Request: fold
Amino acid sequence: MSKSSEFPVFLFGAGLLTGATLTAAVTLAGRNVNEIGDLARFAVASPAVAQIAAAPAPAAPAAAPAPAAAVVADLPQGPLGLGRPALPEEIAAWDVAVLPDGTGLRPGSGSVADGEELFIEKCAACHGDFAEGIDQWPPLAGGVGSLTDRRPVKTVGSYWPYLSTLWDYVHRSMPFGAAQTLTVDDTYAITAYILYSNGLVEDDFVLTHENFGTITLPNADGFRPDDRDVAEYPLFRAEPCMTDCRPAPEVSKRAALLAVTPTDPNGKPAGTIPAFSTASAVQSVVAPAAPAAPAAPATPAAAAADSDAALIAEGEKQFRKCAACHKIGEGATNGTGPHLNGIVGRPVGAVAGFAYSAGFKEAAAAGKVWDEAFLSAFLADPKGAMPRNKMAFAGLKKDEERAAVIAFLAARAP
Ligand code: HEC
Ligand code: HEC
Reply:
């Protein structure tokens, strides 16, 4: 369909819609006058609406475009030319909000004593006689000092910043299931009782709209204005970098080192990722891993060398469990754990610049040294062998595993 043939259809549609809306407005205004006194006053107070009410109802919009157009011209126009802004009086009739500065507070009063009766009758089934909460229903009192706990207890006394929120919330939405059934004075009384339950007023206290502003809740200063528009937003507003934004990333570890890559039956990582070729952490010490058992070792010395090589190769495999935290080899640096160069025979806690735990510092002060026996005990049960240390590692439970990794550590050290 072309633009030109669409256009008249659109106009016709808009005409119908405007006509229908006006008809509705006129009917509504008329009904307001007859039926709902208050709203009718608001309606009549608006010249535009009064005018609509006075205008003859257009019988068929298409047939009587002239009066409708005249009325529409006087109305404040929304983006679609429909409706009108709500009048202040209309908003006031709906608006029950009470603000922290006291705006919206109704004149009235209520005592703790009256509040207690009302609370027990209307609220205690869920919130408890003393506002302490029942089962999963929220407590409204207590919890002071718990805000930094892992499971803070947030109540009016421990958490809420403004008393106006309490008054407003109760008046607007409690009792649960019978919202807006409380009178203004009942709401003052219940609010006073909740203050009393929180130990914030005495039992003879009477809360009124006049002394309302003198009550400051304990956590009033626990909130701060949301400053993200100045504190954070500018950080994200910089011109985005689109080219050469940062140096190319360097792969420093492979999943194979963390022992999360499945291995093939020979203990090599399955797939095509070369096991240690790119990793800075470990380079193969034992040129290619354990060879298939040689047919017949020529001499006993050669046989011993072969079994050492196998042990060290096994140790290299075990070391994958350590490599996420420890480096070893030429130029090894500290990571989560200290580098392990020369660890066999090294004094405990001896790497300069590594922040050892208190447990390690004590052992170092006592002159402990990592001989093979101590290493083995430590690796079997890190927490047991060295109390209060921070190596988050469950341990190598098998003797062979520990022997292998210690052989590897000894062989690998530069
Ligand atoms: C039938 C159970 C029930 C009754 C009765 C009841 N409440 Fe509640 N109240 C609730 C539930 C449920 C909530 C939580 C509502 C939510 O999170 O939306 C709540 C929340 C509240 C809160 C806000 C708690 C917070 O920390 O967020 C206040 C204050 C409160 N009620 C006051 C009252 C008062 C006062 C009455 C009596 C006039 C009352 N309630 C009666 C169930 C009840
Ligand atoms: C999750 C990280 C992590 C893993 C995995 C880990 N370690 Fe550690 N290791 C540490 C930390 C951290 C320390 C220092 C502990 C302290 O200060 O309490 C440490 C300390 C050590 C020490 C003492 C070093 C010194 O300077 O005194 C040795 C030896 C050691 N680890 C060996 C190993 C071995 C072998 C493995 C693997 C079988 C391993 N670690 C696995 C984090 C780890």
Q: What stands out?
A: The mean pLDDT is 76. The radius of gyration is 40 Å.
